[in-house]
Prior knowledge:
By secondary structure, this protein is an alpha+beta fold. The protein has helices spanning about 15-40, 50-70, and strands at about 5, 10, 75-80, 85-95, 105-110, 120-130, 130-135, 140-150, 155-165.
Amino acid sequence: MNSQINQTGRVVTGRMVLVCLVLFFAAVAGVNAIMIRAATSTFGGVETANAYQAGLAFNRAHAAALVQDERHWNVSANLTRQAGATAGLLVRLRDQAGAPIGAVSVAARLVHPADARRDHAVNLVERAAGEFAGTADVPAGQWDLIIDVSRDGAELFRSKSRVVLR
């Protein structure tokens, strides 16, 4: 029998080495299982489902941005914290001469920069000519405010701004 006595006076046998080895790898496997579960439960997925199609859409988006710039619209947005987790958004649309822009539909979204599952749509209604307001329940943090203005299904204006809600 090949066994050694360690410093505590215990005999180190093959069975003890096997048990320690199995316990070590069981602990490693347990930690790996916890980390895999945490990673898969917090990952929201890919940002772009088809990168090739997104690349092809770039030129169309660039041309639309040039047409948008030629309109010389003044679009301002004011995002404020209201009661609790409610945030209020006020969007004002003015043309080059400063007149309110009407007969359009405005959509707004607060997009989380890292997790698409946390995005919030802001339902806007026209309060006055060229003035749209709405609210959404949004927690504090950094958000991308995306505003889309369209008329008869054609996109006329799009903006994306980083905002911080406290």
